[in-house]
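Subgroup meeting minutes
Present: P.N., E.W., G.H.
Scribe: E.W.

1. P.N. recapped why we're keeping a running log of single-chain structure predictions: easier to compare across weeks, and new members can see raw inputs and outputs side by side.
2. G.H. added today's entry (274 aa).
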Amino acid sequence: MSDEGVFVWDGAQLRPAPAGSEMLVADSWLVTDGAVGGFGHHRDRFTAACAAAGVPADRTTAFLDAVPALLPVAGRWFPRIECGPGAGGSGPGGPELRLRVRQAPPTTATLVLAPHPEPDPRRAPRTKGPDLVMLGEVRNQAIALGAGEAVLCAADGTLLEGAYSAVVWWRGEELCLPDPELPVLDSVTRRRVVEEAGRRGVAVRYERVTPAALDGLETWSLSALHGIRAVSGWRGCDVRAGAARRAPEWRAQLGADVTMLAPTTVSARGGVGR
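Output recorded in log:
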């Protein structure tokens, strides 16, 4: 994935400028020919996390309103918005808001999971950003085992989520998610899947399980880049993947629930493109 441009918010506009790499907060989404799904949820999550990092909501809103004008309207892109320490750290300038315009890497409809052998190493599991670089190293360990994503578990073995994804599974006709009291990220794609379940009248159940409890169950990995991916196998544990009966239809539906991202539409809230 390569950067096509890095822009820093100066309080009035986004201007090309060198930007730091440390991230207090980050968010990203897939843009395909100007269309995006769930952008309102991404806005809300980023704004809330930036507020916790000391950025006033009106400053974050102005920054987000300026982002669409810098995104290409053709092709596949995976922009990332970031909040990082400014030149003055947490001083008068406050945190730095920046945009990285990146080409989207290839996406897949299936993948293999591997539980990470150590307890969840994140220091900020409910905030996307501070742990992203470290999580890349965790995922690389899973790739070395022949998997495409690492599964993070608590010290007692309870499944939490993937390094770069949420994990959900099906038990009978119920869609199952990790207990919301667990230290997991507020996944935008998981939220969109739950919304789709509500529209379909599908019951949602919250559980605390280990990876072994998913043996033979249809399991999905969820992310803004890939959408819904059916888990086709496991590595590093004795777990069998279940048949992906529902994944293709739900993946197609999620991919169709998009809206054109334009400066006149970005101020919507609560899941633009649902």
